[in-house]
Amino acid sequence: MEDLRCICCGRQRVIQTSWTDANPDRRFFSCPTNGCNQFTWVDPSICSRAVQIIPRLLKKVNKLEARLQTRNRERKLYICLVASWCIILSMWFVM
Fold first, then answer.
1. Which domain holds residue 62?
2. Contacts for 18 with CB less than 8 Å, ≥ 6 apart
3. For residue 81, is pLDDT > 70?
């Protein structure tokens, strides 16, 4: 097993996942200290086809999540609008 200490500062390295377009879903050991750029790949590099496919899939997922958030926000605004009109109408009938 490889030594999990950073050679620069001696702190315990942590495992992280790269989500860059060049290395999507590839794990690596990195130092938790800011400014220390020591890292070592854990996983072997993936095939070129996966490098093309994974970033596109991630972009689609992000776009769908953004659309879902927009729809949830619109739904909340619609509920607030209906509730406000109900309150206004109930106040109008009371007078």
1. 48-95
2. 24, 25, 26, 27, 28
3. yes
Q: Provide the pLDDT for residue 80.
A: 95
Please give the DSSP secondary-structure letter assigned to residue 71.
H
Please tell me whether the overall predicted TM-score, pTM, comes out greater than 0.70 for this model: no
d(CA 79, CA 77): 5
CA 72 to chain centre: 18
CA distance 58 to 47: 17
Per the structure, how many domains does the chain have?
A: 2
Q: What is the mean pLDDT of residues 41-48?
A: 82
End-to-end CA distance of the chain: 80
